[in-house]
Each structure stands twice: as structure tokens, then as C-alpha cells.
Specification:
By secondary structure, this protein is an all-alpha fold. The protein is built from one helix and no strands.
């Protein structure tokens, strides 16, 4: 009977070791998933920033073209009035 408590403790420790192994495996899996998610988020942010940059550039370019058209229209009107 003196050895029975030791056997119980060893049994519990073995069970705990098995549980820890499972926990470590899950933690490794979660770590991989988080890394993948972080990379996807960074890629998405870069894509969004690039798309926004193109849109802003196009808007600025559009405004510039509109300004040039207005200036040319005014020049034509002045030239026509001068005739």
C-alpha cells in the first residue's frame, strides 16, 4: 500500500504531460494561423493603400485636366471676342 500513492501521482503526471503535449501542439497551430492572418492583413493594408493612392492620383489628374480645359475655353472665348 505504500507504493500506491506514488503510482497515483505518476499516473496524474503522465496524464498532465499528455495534456501539455496537446496544448503545445494547439499553441503551435494557433501561432501559425496568427502569422498567416497578420501577413494577410498587411497585404490587404498595402493593397488598400495602393488603391487609395491610385484613386487620389486619378482625382488630382482629373482636376488638373478640368482646370486646363477651363483655361483653354477662356482663351478661346477671349480670342473669339477679339476678332
Amino acid at each position: 500500500m505504500g507504493k500506491e500513492p506514488d503510482k497515483l501521482v505518476l499516473k496524474l503526471l503522465r496524464e498532465m504531460r499528455g495534456d501539455l503535449g496537446e496544448i503545445k501542439a494547439r499553441l503551435d497551430d494557433h501561432t501559425k494561423q496568427f502569422k498567416k492572418i497578420r501577413k494577410e492583413m498587411a497585404d490587404w493594408q498595402e493593397t488598400s493603400a495602393t488603391a487609395a493612392g491610385f484613386a487620389m492620383h486619378a482625382n488630382v489628374r482629373h482636376e488638373s485636366v478640368d482646370k486646363q480645359i477651363d483655361e483653354l475655353t477662356q482663351r478661346i472665348e477671349r480670342l473669339e471676342k477679339a476678332k
